[in-house]
């Protein structure tokens, strides 16, 4: 392996830059030539490939977003798109590709490796919906953002005696909502993985008020898909005055936390080292305290599960 290329694809997450930095500097350390691609698979197809050196990644470890930019590229899902990208890889004599992104990005490199390109995935998505890694890059920073928002809203909630609903990102995953809700000490957490009963929840909220609670915060994962309906139910049927806050893209930005910078540094370096060992079509991930590489076939075939123990803990602590 002499030349490798790195790209970021799909939804951005804080810490992607730290991962790019680790890939580039680890590659250079091992005597490889390292190239970057702009705008993910779109840039690969269009040949937006350029050499990177030690200084290309200077001063970026603390920055959110991705200096390589990212995109969603429908063409890469077609044979024509994959062939065009392959042609560019051959033109630049590239031996290995590191793709930083989420499950869509990994479906892309799985297809690409079938054409003979050596690939390695680095998990970066605030949703934490990938199996075979305890955490993806960006999750910890997003969790801190969610927790900070809950703390602030709690101040207003206590002053006004209203029920506040906070919708948290995560696509079909309730991870951010569950962990953010526990860390923020909220009263109710609703996630798509576990069914809920609104009349029961209302009862719990009423009991809280009767005990003299001054605030009530309900965290709902976006995957539940019924934030406004739930708010309306609580207002119309139960008589709670409610306010909805959708945290939205706030959760994707910001300077990465120490945890995310360390994780990104370890995963980025490991991706290059696994490519150097001749491995391909794998994702590097954090398992316990170790970095391990797992076949994309395995990663993409099993859903990430939410820990029932953590959910039970949330139920016990949220009163
Ligand atoms: P994420 O990586 O954050 O999950 P997306 O789901 O948007 O983001 O996927 C990123 C890109 O990966 C897509 O825009 C597309 O170019 C590529 N991709 C997704 N699925 C496939 C697939 N089945 N085959 C080839 N490329 C894919």
Automatic annotation (TrEMBL):
Primary location recorded for the protein, binned into one broad class: cytoplasm
Domain of life: Bacteria
Cofactor(s) listed: Mg(2+)
Annotated substrate binding sites: 125-127, 162, 169-171, 222, 243, 249-252
Catalytic reaction list: beta-D-fructose 6-phosphate + ATP = beta-D-fructose 1,6-bisphosphate + ADP + H(+)
One CC-aspect GO term: 6-phosphofructokinase complex
GO BP annotations listed: canonical glycolysis; fructose 1,6-bisphosphate metabolic process; fructose 6-phosphate metabolic process
Annotated ADP binding sites: 21-25, 154, 185-187, 211, 213-215
Regulation of catalytic or functional activity: Allosterically activated by ADP and other diphosphonucleosides, and allosterically inhibited by phosphoenolpyruvate.
Enzyme Commission designation: 2.7.1.11
Family: Belongs to the phosphofructokinase type A (PFKA) family. ATP-dependent PFK group I subfamily. Prokaryotic clade 'B1' sub-subfamily.
NCBIfam families reported for this sequence: PFKA_ATP (TIGR02482), PRK03202.1 (NF002872)
Function: Catalyzes the phosphorylation of D-fructose 6-phosphate to fructose 1,6-bisphosphate by ATP, the first committing step of glycolysis.
Name of this chain's protein: ATP-dependent 6-phosphofructokinase
Gene name of the record: pfkA
């Amino acid at each position: 392996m002499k030349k490798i290329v790195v790209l970021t694809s799909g939804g951005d997450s804080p810490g992607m830059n730290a991962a790019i930095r680790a890939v580039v500097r680890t590659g250079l350390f091992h005597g490889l030539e390292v190239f970057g691609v702009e705008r993910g698979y779109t840039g690969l197809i269009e040949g937006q490939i350029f050499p990177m050196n030690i200084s290309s990644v200077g001063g970026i470890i603390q920055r959110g977003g991705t200096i390589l930019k990212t995109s969603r590229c429908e063409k890469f899902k077609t044979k024509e798109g994959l062939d065009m990208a392959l042609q560019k890889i051959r033109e630049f004599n590239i031996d290995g590709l590191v793709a930083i992104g989420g499950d869509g990005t990994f479906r892309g490199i799985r297809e690409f490796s079938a054409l003979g390109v050596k690939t390695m995935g680095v998990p970066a998505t605030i949703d934490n919906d990938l199996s075979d890694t305890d955490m993806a890059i960006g999750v910890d920073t997003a969790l801190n953002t969610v927790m900070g928002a809950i703390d602030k809203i709690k101040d207003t909630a206590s002053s006004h005696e209203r029920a506040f609903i906070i919708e948290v990102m995560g696509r079909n995953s309730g991870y951010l909502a569950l962990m953010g809700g526990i860390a923020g000490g909220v009263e109710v957490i609703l996630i798509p993985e576990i069914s809920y009963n609104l009349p029961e929840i209302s009862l719990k909220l009423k009991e809280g008020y009767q005990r003299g609670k001054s605030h009530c915060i309900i965290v709902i994962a976006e995957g539940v898909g019924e934030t406004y309906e739930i708010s309306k139910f609580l207002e119309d049927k139960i008589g709670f005055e409610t306010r909805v806050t959708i945290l939205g893209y706030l959760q994707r930005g910001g300077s990465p936390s120490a945890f995310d910078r360390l994780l990104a540094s370890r995963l980025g370096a490991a991706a290059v080292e696994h490519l150097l060992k001749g491995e391909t079509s794998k994702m590097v991930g954090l398992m316990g305290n170790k970095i391990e590489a797992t076949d994309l076939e395995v990663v993409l075939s099993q859903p990430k599960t939410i820990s029932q123990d953590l959910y039970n803990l949330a139920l016990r602590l949220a009163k």
